[in-house]
């Protein structure tokens, strides 16, 4: 298991907010995730522009990355939703991707702990949300283990074909 510097001598997992220099790897991993989870091939130029748009405009959100031995092994994006019911922000955890060889080793748990702690430090943040594919039982179990509860909502969408960013 990777640790965040517990003094055990194990290699440290470093969690940080992503910077524009991380854009290419984030975009590539977003492409891997889209294909793995939905069989969807992202247009690489659109994926790069999308990642860079977030990295360059904090109003759109931000990425968090986990590094091990200097390599990015995990990532997720945080976007913001204003809740008029709660008079505060809800942070949406999106685009979660951990490279296959590092899954089930606590990487996302560490990232989630970082997000949760940071959100609780912000006086206007009232909660965390994410969505997951119905069939992704491993991810659903991981989120439950972190203390998240399944919400009573069903998601609907209307995507515009000319703006899908993939094939």
Task: Describe the structure in your own words.
The chain is of the alpha+beta class. It has one domain: Aminopeptidase. Helices cover 32% and strands 25% of the residues. The chain contains 4 helices and 5 strands, in the order E-H-H-E-E-E-H-E-H. The chain has helices at 23-38, 44-56, 107-121, 137-145; strands at residues 13-17, 62-68, 71-83, 88-98, 125-130. It has a 5-stranded mixed sheet. A hairpin with a 4-residue loop joins strand 3 and strand 4 (88-98). Helix 1 crosses helix 2. The longest helix is centred in the N-terminal third of the chain and has 16 residues, at 23-38.
Question: Short description, anyone?
Answer:
The protein is an alpha+beta fold and 167 residues long.
List the SSEs and their pairings:
Blueprint: E1 13-17, H1 23-38, H2 44-56, E2 62-68, E3 71-83, E4 88-98, H3 107-121, E5 125-130, H4 137-145
Parallel strand pairs: 4-5
Antiparallel strand pairs: 1-2, 2-3, 3-4
Helix pairs in contact: 1-2
